[in-house]
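During the no-cost extension, the postdoctoral fellow (Dr. R.K.) reprocessed legacy sequence entries with the updated structure-token encoder. One reprocessed record is reproduced below for audit purposes.
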Amino acid sequence: MAIKIEKKIKGYNVVKPEDKAAPAVAAAPAAPKEAPKAEVIQMHESLERPETLVGSTYKIKSPLFEHALYVTVNDIVLNAGTPYEQRRPFEIFINSKNMDHFQWIVALTRIISAVFRKGGDVTFLVEEMKAVFDPRGGYFKPGGIYMPSIVAEIGAVIEQHMKTIGLIHDPEMDESTKRLIAEKRAAYEAGAAKKNSEVSAAPTVAAAEPVAEGEAGGNGFPPGATLCAKCNTKALVLMDGCQTCLNCGYSKCG
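Re-encoded structure tokens follow.
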């Protein structure tokens, strides 16, 4: 087929048969690129709320509140009736007669419930909540356990529930540590008994004073025990020039 050239020839090249397919592909209009989308990875199955859930209710009596708080944690049962049956927290409710903190309590329960339903490892909530400190100061629970805030005690309740259903496991003390704590405690009590016998002839006012609820003397630990930085329990005593915890075995001397 004859082709009429109407423009001045400025250069030329030889087109091979195998090169004829390339211009055809290049001439085709390029498909519009799709906008990049976020890659969503589903780490769990989508579960709808069953009609019935298994749960537990815990009572929190804090000196910061006039009325008690009642924390209810409901669990969903996975693989029911099989050897792989598991309970996982699904939702949480907090009720109280005190309406002063109603807004933040409702917000907290909704956020925690959303995290529970999201699935995965939800145990991080415990540490995050137990690290919340009240600027007005914390308080001691019965047993000498220090709580830095009411939010921290709610976190402790969630931790207790997760331990009950097997989601959190406490590291067990080895036998040597248990024997060491028992020996330290026996030695401290023997020393304290000796001092008391020496001053028993002279009654003091302090001996007649009752131990306040929640103080160290009412939980099986010596009355002079101080707060342990590791387990937040009033069980830290001075022995052989070193601070030693009679509850968890923590020692500043290693």
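The first strand starts at residue 54 and ends at 60. The radius of gyration is 34 Å. The remaining legacy entries will be reprocessed before the final report is submitted.
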